[in-house]
Amino acid sequence: MARRYRMKCPRCGNAVNVGASGPCPKCSAPLYVEQQGMLVLYRMGNFVGSANGFGIYLNEQPLGAIGNRETLHIPLPFGDYKMHIVCGMNRQCNDPVLHLCPEDPFIALKVHMKMGFVQNSFIIERVDPSTIPQV
Ligand SMILES: [Zn+2]
């Protein structure tokens, strides 16, 4: 399967998956993949809540969900992005701020759920890109 990019459509506001470029599946607006920065997010396998997607937020803006053992490529302009992940009642997250810039344009991340006594929390960690399954 070809690589898909997760983007927020500027016309309809939906979080959509597109190829290198192509129309928005929701509203047919032409979309282009930003050639600046890239966040790659991999959700580690976890049998807890595995049926549910983890909701992704960047700077408080929803960006769809990620499934179990899924890898998402998120093209973005350079800048700072706070990543937050939620799933159901689990809303605690370490909320890393990611700084995409010309010196550091490619940031690979893994997310996993840490079991807690009251509620579970999400841990997002920066990792070596070679450790992420490229789907
Ligand atoms: Zn659209």
Task: Report on this structure.
- By secondary structure, the protein is mainly beta.
- It has two domains: 33 residues, no CATH class; 97 residues, Immunoglobulins (Immunoglobulin-like).
- Strands 8-5-12-13-10 form a five-stranded mixed beta sheet, with no helix packed on it. The chain has a four-stranded antiparallel beta sheet with strand order 7-6-9-11, with no helix packed on it.
- It is globular, with a radius of gyration of 15 Å.
- The termini are close together.
- The mean pLDDT is 90.
- Bound molecules: zinc ion (ZN).
- The site of zinc ion has 8 residues, from loops.
Can you give keywords for this protein?
binds zinc ion; mainly beta; Immunoglobulin-like; globular; five-stranded mixed beta sheet; 135 residues
